[in-house]
Amino acid sequence: MTMRLKGSLRRMSAVLAAFAVAFTISGLTLAGTASAAPSAPADEVGVTAGVSCSKGTGSSTEGNEVIRYAWAKCSDDFGGQFYRFRLLWSCSGESWERTTTWYRADGRTIVGACPAGKFVDSTRVITDYDA
């Protein structure tokens, strides 16, 4: 029972911290209108308070072929217990995005590869609250 209560308190603390940061960053006040809040760019979707992420690209050689890949790494302030993340990337000559499944934001690095001969065009990370 005590562990469950502590978990609930940590989750509530994380949510309140996210709201506090969101209100501070956007300058949103409770008495303000909805149009006063700035809209976020389309590829900046997700929770960012309490989560730090890095991303990039790399390459490796398999036989005579060069494989190019995107990578992402996220860590939250709670040891990966309350947030999750996923990697989205696109490869040259493709008009769609590839995606990984959700992973806990516990410091792990996830990788997504493009087929041989293709380059990574874009890379982005989406974070989410893991209830």
TrEMBL record:
The lineage of its organism: Bacteria, Bacillati, Actinomycetota, Actinomycetes, Glycomycetales. It comes from the Bacteria. This is Uncharacterized protein. Residues 1-36 form the signal peptide. Keywords: Signal.
